[in-house]
Amino acid sequence: MSTSPTRALDHPEREEIRLEAVLHALSDPMRLQVVRFLAELGEGEGAACSAIELAISKSTTTHHFRVLREAGVISQVYQGTAKMNALRRGDLDALFPGLLESVLSADAAQRQRA
């Protein structure tokens, strides 16, 4: 009996996550929408890419998820054919205390004003 190889995606280790990469990843409205969606899930919960509706093409969506993953903002794992996404809140809070909550609060306030 053979098993199919696991498709693994590269993620930075916690100590490799850089503030400037996180800030860059969070600076785009589409990526911020993904982070907001994942932050609203329960702790440790994930969502498939297809569950997060973005008004952009599939290839552009893939790019935004890759930027978030490579910056260390989200983790992605394959579950069957779907990529499951989860916010790396624990890593971000440990490295940059209060940053994620501040960004999400500022985003909510800005959306409230609009």
TrEMBL record:
Keywords: DNA-binding, Transcription, Transcription regulation. Transmembrane segments: none annotated. Residues 11-107 form the HTH arsR-type domain. Signal peptide: none annotated. InterPro entries: ArsR-like_HTH, HTH_ArsR_DNA-bd_dom, HTH_MetalResp_TranReg, WH-like_DNA-bd_sf, WH_DNA-bd_sf. One of its GO terms (molecular function) is DNA-binding transcription factor activity. This is Transcriptional regulator.
